[in-house]
Design goal:
Two copies of one chain form a homodimer. Chain A is α+β, with helices and mostly antiparallel strands. Chain A has 14 helices and twelve strands. Chain A has one domain. The first copy, chain A, has helices spanning 2-5, 55-64, 67-70, 75-81, 89-101, 119-126, 140-153, 166-179, 202-214, 218-229, 231-234, 240-247, 285-300, 311-314; strands spanning 10-16, 19-32, 37-41, 47-49, 187-190, 196-201, 253-257, 261-266, 271-277, 317-319, 325-333, 336-337. In chain A, strands 1, 2, 3, 7, 8, 9, 10, 11 and 12 form a nine-stranded antiparallel beta sheet that branches. The two termini of chain A are 24 Å apart. The relative contact order of chain A is 0.19. Chains A and B meet through helix 1, strand 2, strand 4 and strand 5 of A and helix 1, strand 2, strand 4 and strand 5 of B.
Chain lengths: 338, 338
């Protein structure tokens, strides 16, 4: 009965021995740069926290206001400022270099520590071969960027991550501009990394990405170029953002967020996409994103995504304690085109 | 629109800074021993894999056929045979003792290894202070019981965990009897621990528990008594099954299962409960169970569950990387009484 009542649905099914054991509903908004809804599933107006998928917008002021140039941030640093990185050596070293460049140190970082997103790095830490410090945080590039913005403007570094600090106010302003949402409409909260995070409708997030994908503003162009030049810095080895932007450089701009959020731009089509896995399960957002992108690209007649190289993200297998495959996470459903 | 169409709903909301960031829908069946639906939420006829919540039924033949007595399995061993234990020393040592008692060794266990359910044990292993072996598996008591049943009947130990082996056939027969489901209706699959697992409707699982709670069959009585005598063996330090059965010994029989399943019996009311968190998120089934039990007990006028001691299970807090509380998992909704 529930199925007949709902809008077009996208579901990620978790299977065991061929049966659907658990499932995750996904809401999707695909829009153009004017905010027009082009395709959807579930609740495209759903409001949720944008989390790390907002990072490119939080990095724009760094470029637009001259902080990036002042501190010599090139494409690598800009890519890390937009990153939810895997804490690999290259990520940690670059974060440290960004801090040094703007006269800061690791002790200035407000982000806490967490198990690295890279399984190899996490295992190293678990074995006691390395100790987690704030630069290991997947958000350390974003935070280094926030500190650089503070230094550039002569604002205090103390409390840079908190609501009310001029850095956060400036970033919120930028987010609102691109998403065409009024400051007063945003949900405001505290992120996993302790910085300000904000909530808005999926359709507004998608619209911001549609714009980011095609805008000729120099800062937008530089950030796009940076993410495409260094996809390995935006995430890390084996992760979807990295593999997708490596395979589709120039065609897809993608950024994952915690709690099942994923945003992307398809610049050639002038479209933006944002999806939210209802349960917040981050294992489900990669298959959901690939499914949505394939549907949209197929409909438009554009070149489709490659199959090999992305298959393990499109349908991640599930294993039991003896390593035997017992099932998979698979996307099923229907995107409604408007 | 979807809300108007659905049955009474139970939702576990995941909050951040006071907003609902993600959510998990829960289906619930509360039945009596005749299979009559007393209360429900979501889809009480939902079919899913019973997982570890089925363990008491898988342990019944051990008692009923004399294997437990033959090998000297007392209440401690029977509790472990029903357990998803935390791999604490007492659990591992008892599993080893059970194996020895029936002439088996750790090498006979088919269950693979996994990070212990106890955070302390998991940290020990991660630090390299202990090496995971099959007896560490949370299912090692169940598997030791399966091996004991094989030894008792003179069946081969090889492949005891696989579909078709007489041990698995015997256990499936027992499950079908209590749940009043035909063998041909069951979903059959491979569990995380590699043993056979089976799927059936939540309402059938609840009915089985309603019966288990009140049955005067000697095997059922002995298993109930064993679980209530040793709740610390059925799960482990700090876990809900343990804390609930310690606080409500004789009043609540509870057993968790993977992928968001939880079953319980309320013997004084002649009722059984089974719930399934749609997304499979195991953080959500404890708050869901406590919410359902409280609703049912309140409606019946029975003594309610204690508040203190269970609060951290009823509304688990969520923290960011600096350990600050950013939100919680909280149950909300309505149970429909029939």
């Amino acid at each position: 009965m529930a199925q007949r009542c709902m809008a077009a649905a996208l579901t990620i099914e978790s299977t065991r021995s061929g049966y659907v054991e658990s499932l995750h509903r996904v809401s999707v908004a695909v829009t153009d740069g004017e905010g027009r809804l082009v395709a959807s599933a579930g609740a495209p107006e759903l409001i949720t926290f944008w989390r790390s998928a907002a990072k490119p917008f939080q990095a724009l002021p760094l470029v637009a206001e001259g902080a990036a140039d002042r501190f010599g941030f090139g494409t690598r640093e800009l890519a890390l400022a937009c990153a939810s990185h895997s804490s690999e050596p290259v990520h940690r070293e670059l974060a440290e270099a960004m801090l040094r460049a703007c006269g800061c140190e690791e002790r200035h970082l407000a982000c806490g520590t967490h198990p690295p997103l890279s399984p190899q790095m996490a295992a190293q830490v678990a074995r006691g071969e390395a100790v987690l410090t704030p630069k290991w945080s997947n958000c350390s590039g974003k935070h280094a960027g926030m500190l650089a913005l503070a230094r550039h403007h002569g604002w205090p570094t103390e409390g840079y991550e908190r609501l009310g600090h001029p850095v956060q106010e400036r970033l919120l302003e930028e987010v609102c501009r691109w998403a065409a949402v009024a400051r007063g409409e945003l949900w405001l909260g505290v992120d996993g990394c302790t910085a300000v995070c904000f909530g808005l409708p999926l359709s507004a997030m998608a619209t911001a990405y549609a714009r980011l994908g095609t805008s000729e503003e120099p800062a937008a162009r530089r950030l796009r170029e940076a993410m495409w030049a260094h996809p390995e810095l935006v995430a890390g080895t084996g992760r979807l953002c990295t593999e997708l932007m490596t395979a589709c450089r120039g065609e897809v701009l993608a950024k994952v967020g915690a709690e099942g959020v994923y945003s992307a731009a398809l610049p050639a089509l002038g479209l933006g996409v944002t999806l939210k896995v209802e349960s917040g399960d981050g294992r489900c957002s990669p298959p959901a994103l690939l499914w949505v992108l394939r549907q949209v690209l197929a409909r438009s007649g554009a070149r489709t995504l490659p199959e090999e190289g992305l298959a393990h993200h499109a349908e991640p297998v599930l294993r039991n304690t003896r390593g035997e495959v017992t099932g998979a996470l698979r996307a099923t459903g229907e995107l409604r085109f408007h």
